[in-house]
Fold these 4 entries.
Entry 1:
Amino acid sequence: MGKAIIRKPKVDKPRKGRKKKSIQEVAAEIKTKSLSIKSLIENSRIQTLKEIEPLFTKSMADQLGVNHGRFIDKLKNPIKFSTKDIFRFAYYVDLNPTEIINQVKDEIENNQLLVEKLKKFKAITKRK
């Protein structure tokens, strides 16, 4: 007769690396962060849109249908926002688009560098 092989029971070890969240956890996180963004903008508690960057997650970007990195760049540099971006973001966080437009307008008007970038025009004599 052969020897019986005794196997040790498998013990679930905690996995290393990124923690995976369930769809329900991600949905709850998105809802919480969206409400936070809405509250900050509605109550004018931010000076610049860049301040909401930590709240805007990759999951939110995926739902919104935008590239996360590019959208963060627009939050940092509001002259890059298109009308479509502003309206989609406003509807996503359940805001009146006018509130985000006003925030962008105020941010541009209060930053002389952004105003100068917008005022640069090409002279007709330099056209080919």
Note: Helices lie at 23-42, 58-64, 68-76, 83-92, 97-109, 112-119.
Entry 2:
Amino acid sequence: MKMRVMFASSNKKMQNYADAIGHAFGCQVSDIPPSYPADNEKLVVIGLSLKGSKVEDRVRRFCSELIPKRAKTTSLFVDGPENSEAEKEVKRILTEAGTVVIDHTLYVKCGMFSSKLSLEERQKIVDWVREVQTMAAEFT
């Protein structure tokens, strides 16, 4: 499945989660905003650090431009509280842009002191992406 991973976070551990997905699935990993826009991706996995109810402007703009020609389906992994107002806002923006949002968010904990992923954390995110790929296949 043609897939891409994008993330927006100053936390190094979020980048490590994105890199683990990229390594496991052989797909491109980019920071938001990406150097090259998504193009005809079946799935875009987006990693975000969401605190409070505000969504960063760069994330808002990127998500609003993720039209179906660029990405058929999207899914989120989030460092932050479950079902936050910011997460709901990101999902709303993605839906308005026309992409299908797979409602199977993975919530990760990224502390301030450790940026390394444990084997268990790496396995958990890879297993989650496999589940999301299965769900995305239904929409493509």
Note: The longest helix spans residues 119-137.
Entry 3:
Amino acid sequence: MLAFEIKINDSAPMVVAADNHVIADFIYGVSAINPNSVLIAGFDDFNRYIWLDGEIHHNDEVHIRLVDVGKDKVSVPLKTTKESLERLKEKYDKLQQELKNKGLI
């Protein structure tokens, strides 16, 4: 599976991957709500994962590379949140309507 290997300063590299999406969101600036934030998260159909929710600072070194790894090499998330059945039903209903509107079902 394709994954991001992310290393910040001297920390151990994180290998982050999820079945649907992985987001590495670095915000640095005075006008942002949380101006030094870094969020590394991902999600699949049933879970939301957070590997890092912290801060970055001037002169921090961030190295990101794309790697091909087995699922067993993905770093354990700091937090995993289960997707609610209600939310999944909302997604299903929205997709069903979208497919009907396009004449696909």
Note: The first strand starts at residue 2 and ends at 8.
Entry 4:
Amino acid sequence: MRRTILLFCVIYLLISTQACTDPKGQKQEPVFKQLPDIQEIKPERPAKIKLKRDAKDDHSWEISGDDVDEIIRVDKKLRKDLKTD
């Protein structure tokens, strides 16, 4: 009886081991796909502001950056904060 159970266990292990191996015997390399959306993303640089004040306490500034909407938003905020038109 023990030999029969042992024989079934050995056969089960051999079958399960055979099922886990590649039948062709070739190792497959993992494939990594590069997403084109990720490659095109550039880090956003903040707008650069050069704030100037003259002897009469008048303010002026130069804003540079890549995003026009951000430049306009920063300009409006500066005008509001400095109360300059």
Note: The chain has a mean pLDDT of 78.
